[in-house]
Predict the 3D structure of the following.
Amino acid sequence: MDAHRRRRRFVAVAAAAAVAALAAVPTTPVRASGSASTDGAITRARPDGKLVPERGVLFGAFQDLDSRWTGLRSEKRAIRRYERKLGRKLRIDHHFYDWGQSWPGDFERWDVRHNRIPMVTWEPNGVDLDDIVDGRHDALIRERARQAAGFGRRLFLRWAHEMNGYWYSWGGPNNHDPGTRNGPSKYVAAWRHVHDVFVREGATNVVWVWGPNNESVPFDSWNHWRSYYPGDAYVDWVAASGFNWGTLESWSSWRSFLRCFRPFYDDYAGRKPIMVAETGSTTRGGNRAKWVWNMSADVRRKLPGVAAIVYFNSDPRWTIAPRSTGFGALRRVANSGYFKP
């Protein structure tokens, strides 16, 4: 499972985003209806849906502390050890799969037996979006759909994430026809096709998680995350990836959790349940323990539509392992009532 451990494009992406931030702002977002607090946060109750807690946050992680996949048995041991140190079970256990890899399987069944919700990120590496739409991969898609239906339990599926960047082959910037900006429309068509195959095969236990990056690269209106949204009928949860780079790089600065996710949140609060699918903070340039604690406060007070947070615990820059900076704060947050709905 090589793909699940590479946080791919870090320097190039954020550097480009930092430069692009000086450019024109994309078109005005569609705001969710509902009352607003004095600081402008949408306070409308979160929508109902599959696996959505009425209140609070499902806490999970992508757990690979040594950034080296060493086999299913050892990874299970690593998760159990981490949970013992954390003082609780992860509610969401995040797994990555390449296009040709089989899922769900033993790992997901093990999660369910231990009261975790599996989340699968399925990556169509090197697969042409037009070929997906034209049905050239339907045999493989049907096989995965039948496996998912046979699994018989709810699981999150995040297909072809962070599509509003250039670091993956399925990203919109990599899929334009000559002379066009039709990468987003190709992505939407491919998402709908995969979704429809799953529905036809009876995989209604799959919970569809649409997951752009919290910054679009390039920072142009055609490439905004809204351009990639497949439609309410095709999405159960919306999710975003976003990291605090601190002063790791010359172009980066310390960013709060709220600053990382508020623009995305404001586009979808009250419309769909919201997940933070990947996040983390460096220790460079600020206090990571305080960052984690403020994340908890911001979610409670300003981002009540966030119903799940999945920490990306698989990169030296973000990992919060036992005895590392911020673990005490993460443990306190994870064991608070709001994070144990």
Residues 1-43 have pLDDT under 50 and may be disordered. The first helix runs from residue 10 to 20. The longest strand covers residues 237-244.
